[in-house]
Amino acid sequence: MKRVWCLYRVSKKQQVSADEDIPMQKNACHEFVKNKPDWTITNELYEKGVSGWKKTASERDEMAALKEGALKKKFDVLLVFMFDRLGRREDETPVMVNFLIQHGIEVWSVKEGQRKIESHVDKLLNYISFWQSDGESQKTSIRVKEAKKQLGEQGFFQGGTAPIGYKIVETNQPHWKNKDRRLKELVPDEMESKMIKLIFHLYVNKQMGYRKIADYLNEHGFRTRDGSIFVVSTIQRILSNPIYIGYKRYKSALGGTQPFNEKLKIISDELFYQAERIRKVRHNSIEKQDKSSIPRTGKLLFSGLAYCKYCGSKLTSNYLYRTSKNESSKTIIYRYRCPLNKGKLHGSHQQNVWGGKKYDTLIINQLKTILSKLELESFFNKNQTGKDEFLKLKEQNLKNLKKEYGDLRKQQEKLNLEIGKALIGESAFTPEQLSLALKAIEKQLEEKLRQINDLKEALDKERDHADKPENQFKNWEQKFNEADEDLIKAMLSKIIHKVYFGKNEIDIELNLSLSDYLNGKLY
User: Fold this and answer.
1) In this structure, which topology does domain 166-268 adopt according to CATH?
2) What is the model's pLDDT at position 76?
3) pLDDT of residue 188
4) Which pLDDT score, from 0 to 100, does residue 166 have?
5) Parallel/antiparallel/unpaired status of strands 106-109 and 353-355
6) pTM of the model
7) Which of 123, 129, 282, 357 shows the greatest Cβ crowding within 10 Å of its Cβ?
């Protein structure tokens, strides 16, 4: 009697209990053996939810069991429903079949009969068969990915947890795989979307950091969807997620997004990209250990921006209590103080302590005078010229990348034609050599496409969402007078780089673009 081992495999876990999958394969194999009087089934191997294309032979436990059984002469026949149950990889599955046959194992399929390698033609047919299976798997993968991609582009939800600010709702449209199910989509959640707007407002307009925003939300009774308090990482993810302006992430490891979907939009583009610029500036400041950015805590308006004129040191803040004449109350007096005002090492200091209220008022008045004299329209026109030149350079880079991508596609087409010739013996190369070359080209194509998409996305953002700094200064004085403490500090940080304190004098150093304009250096 010939000892028969049967192998049953399904690619997806959803297929494991379906009537048309493993049970069907098993019944077909048992019926086939009934017509072979000298055959008896001695072992049955199951691969549940294992892809014969994505998984290599070395990653499949049952393939190892088959090899071990063949080496130890534990069976005489391997029976499968169809040969693609063995695998769909054209570079591995024929090798596995050859291994079994060379060790005296007959390889049979219920639907396709016995596989042999007695002649060169048998080997070629064997290779072509699995090459076709490999191609079918790739086509199936492409179809599934394309279907999911198109559904995603149309706004339909493809699984996972809804981001904060959204909820999942069922549509009336049937599911593309199961007509009894309905496609789902993301829509803004009324309550959570208000919280998202608040987070961006606090970050951009109030200049709060991640920790301060989390504390603010927790103190005001906001909670995450599962009832937990907000933490820094949650705030970071929210502020960096482009879904809030209608661009859902796709292949997030590569930084890609799906096409714009108006239904997903919660905040304005301008607000999101302002937040992105702030994040980059703060990140760069941390990497350079730059502590000069304006603080988001403290009672002095220019704490963090104030420097000593005499030694260049950053001023610290302190306070003292002043008691009223009748000693009925105490008033806190905040002051700027130079920490290096003692000794001759750091030079002579004509003054080392400055009253906060007095000097904050002096600086604000001087700043208002400076801004009132600026010809802002001329400044912004000159500034835009430099941005336009930079955009042209990026556009040329994009054009070059597209040309390189086109050249690679031509190479890919030539290799595909050469593979066809190799299969009929008219090529100087083997199918294996051409297959390796084709995979290398496909990898280069994928990387080149990623570079193109990244650069195109960056260009689109710069064209469509270019910052309009004139809006920051329009009615600046009115906005400043009406702002609260956090907003005042945020507005000052956009204009002032440093303020130097001397004896009864101040020297304001504006941010680079404004300073260059005043000195006539811009472009």
Assistant:
1) Hect, E3 ligase catalytic domain fold (3.90.1750)
2) 96
3) 93
4) 92
5) unpaired
6) 0.40
7) 129
